[in-house]
Write a structure and sequence with these properties.
Order of helices and strands: EHEHEHHEEEHEHHEEEEEEEEEE
Radius of gyration: 21 Å
Helix content: 25-40%
Number of helices: 7
Largest sheet: 6 strands, antiparallel, barrel
Strand content: 25-35%
Distance between the termini: 43 Å
Oligomer: single chain
Strand order of the largest sheet: 12-15-14-13-16-17
Length: 349
Amino acid sequence: MNDKVFAAMSGGVDSSAAACLLAEAGLTVTGATMKLLCSDEADRDAKDARAVCEKLGIPHEVIDFTGEFRRVVIGNFADEYSAGRTPNPCVICNKYLKFGALLRAAEAAGHDRIATGHFARIDRDANGRYLLKRAVDETKDQSYMLWMLDQEQLSRTLLPLGAMRKTEVRAIAADRGLVTAHKSDSQDICFVPDGDYAGFLIRKTGAVPIPGDFVDSEGHVLGKHRGLIHYTVGQRKGLGIALGQPMFVASKDPDTRRVVLCGGDSPLLFRRVVTLSHLNLIAADRLDGPVRCEAKLRYRHNAAPAVLYQTGEDSAVLTFDTEQRAPAPGQSAVFYDGDTVIGGGLIDA
């Protein structure tokens, strides 16, 4: 490979520090800002990224991916929510945009590799297989968000921050006088900054959510809800119904438009066995038998001991040692062997 790298630059401190480290290592770096949204905030982020590139003395490009982002990421988000599932758009964006479309743009510009500011590590085993590993800073580890990547994408990617701690990253940016050094980290889905997913979907699709029934585990009607897109499995707040005790969403049925509610200690909220689709294995081509692992069902949750069993080309079953609370269909399950990501899949049930 040549020494030319497209460094994805979001306008944040992490991607700024990543580009800085690569440039200081002697690589030929081009800062590449992916334009995903048409907004004032996106324009400000691009401006910050350009200022960092000027400080580092490297070229900067803004690449318009608004069409692909709208079609692939936002489209999937809307479709999944409409089907009663709870998607994670960042996982889809990483697979198809940041490590897909951007890599193709890099190749077209004569750059063999891309780099991002993700907190994760890429390694190779004795057989030459590329492995995805947790970051050294476990509080910032983002390997969960990268489980969909394939061998080709991993082989062409640099992750300079994987062995660093967040405090070190900010210190590097501050020491180099980068304008992003003290910029706060983004917290919400970029295209829903106010967290109002239902409002966004209504504006996006033009569809008016159809009300339905809140029911208990036996099907008794407890009240009316505002439409399935307003709720997700495990949700307690914002239900808009008072029943004398805290109630949680146990499940949603898009066919009957029923939302099942239960108490916080109800067995309906807990499962040991979780079925998966869209399986992507990183550490192996296929699992020939049951594998002990630790698995995460949400980004912010701790991994729990489980047994992973592949049931088909792109399907698997996770059986946890202990019951897990509110696995939500559409979310990602990611499995680990120590620091190594075995792979991941989408939760079906």
